[in-house]
# Entry
Amino acid sequence: MNANHTTLAKSNTKNGIVLHKMTIFPTSTRFRCRKEIELVIIKKGTGNLYLENNSFSFAPGEVFVFGPMLPHRWSLNGEYGGGEIEYIYFNRDFWGKKFLCLPENKVIKTFLDLSEKGIKIAENEGVLLSEIWTKILLAEGSMRVVYLMEMLSCLAYSHGKSILTLHKNKKNYYVRNKKNQNKIEKITSFSEKNFYRKIQLTEVSRILGMNQNYFCKFFKTETGKTYFQYLSEIRVSYSCKLLDEGKDNFKQICFKSGFNNLTSFYKTFKKVKGKTPKNYQNDRS
# Structure
Protein backbone atom coordinates (compact mmCIF):
# COMPACT_ATOMS: atom_id res chain seq x y z
CA MET A 1 0.00 0.00 0.00
CA ASN A 2 1.47 3.39 -0.94
CA ALA A 3 -1.15 5.94 0.15
CA ASN A 4 -3.36 6.41 3.20
CA HIS A 5 -6.62 8.36 3.01
CA THR A 6 -8.35 10.18 5.87
CA THR A 7 -11.70 12.00 5.58
CA LEU A 8 -11.40 15.49 7.09
CA ALA A 9 -14.92 16.77 6.46
CA LYS A 10 -17.92 15.61 4.51
CA SER A 11 -21.31 16.91 3.40
CA ASN A 12 -24.45 15.12 4.46
CA THR A 13 -25.39 14.51 0.82
CA LYS A 14 -23.56 12.35 -1.72
CA ASN A 15 -23.24 15.28 -4.15
CA GLY A 16 -21.85 17.77 -1.63
CA ILE A 17 -18.31 18.86 -0.71
CA VAL A 18 -15.86 16.28 0.64
CA LEU A 19 -12.40 16.99 2.08
CA HIS A 20 -9.74 14.27 2.36
CA LYS A 21 -6.13 14.02 3.44
CA MET A 22 -3.78 11.62 1.65
CA THR A 23 -0.33 10.56 2.81
CA ILE A 24 1.91 9.58 -0.11
CA PHE A 25 4.82 7.21 0.41
CA PRO A 26 7.98 7.18 -1.78
CA THR A 27 6.62 4.46 -4.06
CA SER A 28 4.35 6.00 -6.70
CA THR A 29 0.62 5.96 -6.24
CA ARG A 30 -1.56 4.38 -8.90
CA PHE A 31 -3.31 6.48 -11.52
CA ARG A 32 -6.52 7.79 -10.03
CA CYS A 33 -9.44 9.87 -11.23
CA ARG A 34 -12.85 10.87 -9.94
CA LYS A 35 -16.12 11.78 -11.56
CA GLU A 36 -16.09 14.99 -9.49
CA ILE A 37 -13.89 18.09 -9.77
CA GLU A 38 -10.87 17.81 -7.48
CA LEU A 39 -8.86 20.59 -5.80
CA VAL A 40 -5.51 19.51 -4.32
CA ILE A 41 -3.13 21.42 -2.05
CA ILE A 42 0.38 20.11 -1.37
CA LYS A 43 1.06 20.19 2.37
CA LYS A 44 4.33 18.27 2.64
CA GLY A 45 6.88 16.66 0.33
CA THR A 46 8.17 17.12 -3.20
CA GLY A 47 7.95 14.90 -6.26
CA ASN A 48 6.29 14.57 -9.63
CA LEU A 49 2.71 14.54 -10.85
CA TYR A 50 2.09 12.37 -13.92
CA LEU A 51 -0.71 13.47 -16.21
CA GLU A 52 -1.22 11.82 -19.61
CA ASN A 53 2.29 11.65 -21.14
CA ASN A 54 3.66 14.57 -19.10
CA SER A 55 5.19 15.05 -15.66
CA PHE A 56 5.18 18.15 -13.46
CA SER A 57 7.06 18.82 -10.25
CA PHE A 58 5.14 19.61 -7.09
CA ALA A 59 6.14 21.27 -3.81
CA PRO A 60 4.43 22.44 -0.60
CA GLY A 61 1.98 25.33 -1.10
CA GLU A 62 1.13 24.52 -4.70
CA VAL A 63 -2.47 23.87 -5.73
CA PHE A 64 -3.68 21.57 -8.52
CA VAL A 65 -7.15 21.31 -10.04
CA PHE A 66 -8.39 18.24 -11.93
CA GLY A 67 -11.61 18.03 -13.90
CA PRO A 68 -13.84 14.94 -13.91
CA MET A 69 -12.23 11.65 -15.03
CA LEU A 70 -8.76 13.13 -15.58
CA PRO A 71 -6.26 10.35 -14.65
CA HIS A 72 -3.25 11.46 -12.61
CA ARG A 73 -0.57 9.88 -10.45
CA TRP A 74 1.64 11.23 -7.64
CA SER A 75 5.26 10.13 -7.25
CA LEU A 76 7.04 11.29 -4.10
CA ASN A 77 10.76 11.92 -3.74
CA GLY A 78 12.28 9.68 -1.09
CA GLU A 79 11.57 11.78 1.99
CA TYR A 80 11.24 10.04 5.33
CA GLY A 81 7.67 9.77 6.57
CA GLY A 82 5.98 10.43 3.24
CA GLY A 83 4.36 13.44 1.66
CA GLU A 84 0.97 14.85 2.47
CA ILE A 85 -1.74 16.36 0.31
CA GLU A 86 -5.27 17.50 1.10
CA TYR A 87 -7.97 17.50 -1.50
CA ILE A 88 -11.53 18.71 -1.92
CA TYR A 89 -13.86 17.15 -4.41
CA PHE A 90 -17.36 18.15 -5.44
CA ASN A 91 -19.85 17.51 -8.21
CA ARG A 92 -19.81 20.34 -10.75
CA ASP A 93 -23.61 20.75 -10.54
CA PHE A 94 -24.10 20.14 -6.81
CA TRP A 95 -25.45 23.70 -6.51
CA GLY A 96 -27.85 23.17 -9.45
CA LYS A 97 -27.31 23.06 -13.21
CA LYS A 98 -28.17 26.76 -13.75
CA PHE A 99 -26.04 28.26 -10.98
CA LEU A 100 -22.80 28.46 -13.00
CA CYS A 101 -24.70 29.97 -15.94
CA LEU A 102 -25.38 33.17 -13.99
CA PRO A 103 -23.43 36.12 -15.48
CA GLU A 104 -21.74 36.68 -12.12
CA ASN A 105 -20.26 33.16 -12.26
CA LYS A 106 -18.88 33.32 -15.81
CA VAL A 107 -15.23 33.44 -14.71
CA ILE A 108 -15.68 30.49 -12.34
CA LYS A 109 -17.50 28.49 -15.02
CA THR A 110 -14.66 29.14 -17.48
CA PHE A 111 -12.12 28.06 -14.86
CA LEU A 112 -13.98 24.81 -14.19
CA ASP A 113 -14.12 24.18 -17.95
CA LEU A 114 -10.33 24.57 -18.05
CA SER A 115 -9.94 22.09 -15.19
CA GLU A 116 -10.67 19.34 -17.70
CA LYS A 117 -7.09 19.94 -18.90
CA GLY A 118 -5.61 20.08 -15.40
CA ILE A 119 -4.42 23.32 -13.77
CA LYS A 120 -1.45 24.15 -11.53
CA ILE A 121 -1.40 27.23 -9.29
CA ALA A 122 2.01 28.62 -8.35
CA GLU A 123 3.34 28.31 -4.81
CA ASN A 124 3.55 32.10 -4.31
CA GLU A 125 -0.27 32.28 -4.30
CA GLY A 126 -0.60 29.44 -1.82
CA VAL A 127 -0.74 31.51 1.40
CA LEU A 128 -4.14 33.09 0.69
CA LEU A 129 -5.46 29.85 -0.76
CA SER A 130 -4.31 27.95 2.32
CA GLU A 131 -6.23 30.36 4.56
CA ILE A 132 -9.43 29.85 2.56
CA TRP A 133 -8.79 26.10 2.53
CA THR A 134 -8.76 26.11 6.34
CA LYS A 135 -12.05 28.05 6.38
CA ILE A 136 -13.64 25.40 4.14
CA LEU A 137 -12.38 22.66 6.45
CA LEU A 138 -13.75 24.28 9.60
CA ALA A 139 -17.02 25.63 8.17
CA GLU A 140 -20.37 23.89 8.37
CA GLY A 141 -23.54 24.05 6.32
CA SER A 142 -23.91 26.80 3.73
CA MET A 143 -20.74 28.58 4.87
CA ARG A 144 -18.69 25.74 3.40
CA VAL A 145 -20.26 26.52 0.01
CA VAL A 146 -19.56 30.24 0.47
CA TYR A 147 -15.87 29.58 1.17
CA LEU A 148 -15.64 27.14 -1.73
CA MET A 149 -16.95 29.90 -3.99
CA GLU A 150 -14.32 32.24 -2.55
CA MET A 151 -11.64 29.65 -3.27
CA LEU A 152 -12.82 29.10 -6.85
CA SER A 153 -12.97 32.85 -7.45
CA CYS A 154 -9.37 33.28 -6.25
CA LEU A 155 -8.23 30.38 -8.42
CA ALA A 156 -10.07 31.72 -11.46
CA TYR A 157 -8.52 35.18 -11.16
CA SER A 158 -5.05 33.86 -10.31
CA HIS A 159 -2.19 35.08 -12.52
CA GLY A 160 -0.04 32.14 -11.47
CA LYS A 161 -2.02 29.34 -13.10
CA SER A 162 -0.70 27.01 -15.79
CA ILE A 163 -2.73 24.67 -17.99
CA LEU A 164 -1.17 21.21 -17.74
CA THR A 165 -2.36 19.21 -20.75
CA LEU A 166 -2.82 19.96 -24.41
CA HIS A 167 -6.38 18.73 -24.83
CA LYS A 168 -9.39 18.30 -22.65
CA ASN A 169 -9.69 14.77 -21.32
CA LYS A 170 -10.68 13.26 -24.64
CA LYS A 171 -9.00 12.43 -27.95
CA ASN A 172 -9.69 14.62 -30.96
CA TYR A 173 -9.78 11.59 -33.24
CA TYR A 174 -11.50 8.20 -33.44
CA VAL A 175 -9.82 5.10 -34.85
CA ARG A 176 -12.20 3.17 -37.09
CA ASN A 177 -10.35 -0.16 -37.00
CA LYS A 178 -9.15 -1.03 -33.48
CA LYS A 179 -6.44 -3.25 -34.98
CA ASN A 180 -4.75 -0.07 -36.18
CA GLN A 181 -5.00 1.73 -32.82
CA ASN A 182 -1.28 1.28 -32.02
CA LYS A 183 -0.21 2.58 -35.43
CA ILE A 184 -2.34 5.71 -35.08
CA GLU A 185 -1.10 6.27 -31.53
CA LYS A 186 2.51 6.18 -32.77
CA ILE A 187 1.61 9.03 -35.13
CA THR A 188 -0.35 11.05 -32.57
CA SER A 189 2.37 10.62 -29.93
CA PHE A 190 5.02 11.84 -32.38
CA SER A 191 2.81 14.75 -33.47
CA GLU A 192 2.05 15.93 -29.93
CA LYS A 193 5.77 16.01 -29.16
CA ASN A 194 6.81 17.79 -32.38
CA PHE A 195 3.86 19.98 -33.47
CA TYR A 196 5.78 23.18 -32.63
CA ARG A 197 8.13 22.66 -35.60
CA LYS A 198 7.69 21.97 -39.31
CA ILE A 199 6.70 18.34 -39.96
CA GLN A 200 7.12 16.81 -43.41
CA LEU A 201 4.93 13.97 -44.70
CA THR A 202 8.05 11.97 -45.52
CA GLU A 203 9.08 12.13 -41.86
CA VAL A 204 5.75 11.10 -40.38
CA SER A 205 4.98 8.39 -42.95
CA ARG A 206 8.39 6.84 -42.30
CA ILE A 207 7.31 6.08 -38.71
CA LEU A 208 4.93 3.43 -40.04
CA GLY A 209 7.15 2.39 -42.93
CA MET A 210 4.65 3.68 -45.51
CA ASN A 211 5.03 5.87 -48.57
CA GLN A 212 3.39 9.29 -48.40
CA ASN A 213 0.34 8.50 -50.54
CA TYR A 214 -0.49 5.29 -48.68
CA PHE A 215 0.02 6.98 -45.31
CA CYS A 216 -2.34 9.85 -46.23
CA LYS A 217 -5.03 7.40 -47.30
CA PHE A 218 -4.47 5.20 -44.24
CA PHE A 219 -4.70 8.10 -41.76
CA LYS A 220 -7.80 9.60 -43.41
CA THR A 221 -9.55 6.19 -43.51
CA GLU A 222 -8.81 5.44 -39.87
CA THR A 223 -9.48 8.85 -38.29
CA GLY A 224 -11.88 10.55 -40.72
CA LYS A 225 -9.55 13.52 -41.15
CA THR A 226 -6.34 14.26 -43.01
CA TYR A 227 -3.07 14.25 -41.13
CA PHE A 228 -2.61 17.99 -41.55
CA GLN A 229 -6.17 18.59 -40.32
CA TYR A 230 -5.24 16.66 -37.19
CA LEU A 231 -1.93 18.53 -36.85
CA SER A 232 -3.72 21.88 -37.20
CA GLU A 233 -6.13 20.91 -34.42
CA ILE A 234 -3.20 20.07 -32.11
CA ARG A 235 -1.58 23.42 -32.85
CA VAL A 236 -4.81 25.33 -32.28
CA SER A 237 -5.41 23.40 -29.03
CA TYR A 238 -1.98 24.41 -27.81
CA SER A 239 -2.55 28.02 -28.83
CA CYS A 240 -5.78 27.94 -26.79
CA LYS A 241 -3.75 26.72 -23.81
CA LEU A 242 -1.41 29.70 -24.19
CA LEU A 243 -4.34 32.10 -24.66
CA ASP A 244 -5.94 30.73 -21.49
CA GLU A 245 -2.72 31.34 -19.56
CA GLY A 246 -2.55 34.92 -20.89
CA LYS A 247 1.25 35.25 -20.69
CA ASP A 248 2.13 35.62 -24.40
CA ASN A 249 1.03 37.95 -27.20
CA PHE A 250 -0.50 36.63 -30.45
CA LYS A 251 2.80 36.63 -32.33
CA GLN A 252 4.55 34.62 -29.63
CA ILE A 253 1.63 32.17 -29.45
CA CYS A 254 1.66 31.81 -33.23
CA PHE A 255 5.27 30.61 -33.39
CA LYS A 256 5.18 28.60 -30.16
CA SER A 257 2.21 26.65 -31.58
CA GLY A 258 4.02 25.68 -34.78
CA PHE A 259 2.59 28.19 -37.26
CA ASN A 260 4.92 29.88 -39.76
CA ASN A 261 3.16 33.25 -39.82
CA LEU A 262 0.31 35.19 -38.24
CA THR A 263 -1.90 34.93 -41.33
CA SER A 264 -1.78 31.15 -41.22
CA PHE A 265 -2.36 31.20 -37.47
CA TYR A 266 -5.45 33.43 -37.65
CA LYS A 267 -6.93 31.56 -40.62
CA THR A 268 -6.43 28.09 -39.11
CA PHE A 269 -7.60 29.15 -35.66
CA LYS A 270 -10.85 30.57 -37.03
CA LYS A 271 -11.42 27.47 -39.18
CA VAL A 272 -10.97 25.12 -36.21
CA LYS A 273 -12.62 27.18 -33.45
CA GLY A 274 -15.13 29.21 -35.47
CA LYS A 275 -13.79 32.46 -34.00
CA THR A 276 -10.62 34.56 -34.06
CA PRO A 277 -7.97 34.26 -31.33
CA LYS A 278 -9.01 37.70 -30.07
CA ASN A 279 -12.68 36.71 -29.83
CA TYR A 280 -11.68 33.47 -28.10
CA GLN A 281 -9.66 35.43 -25.56
CA ASN A 282 -12.49 37.94 -24.98
CA ASP A 283 -14.99 35.12 -24.43
CA ARG A 284 -12.76 33.61 -21.71
CA SER A 285 -12.19 36.88 -19.84
Remarks:
- Residues 227-245 form the longest helix (19 residues).
- The chain has a mean pLDDT of 83.
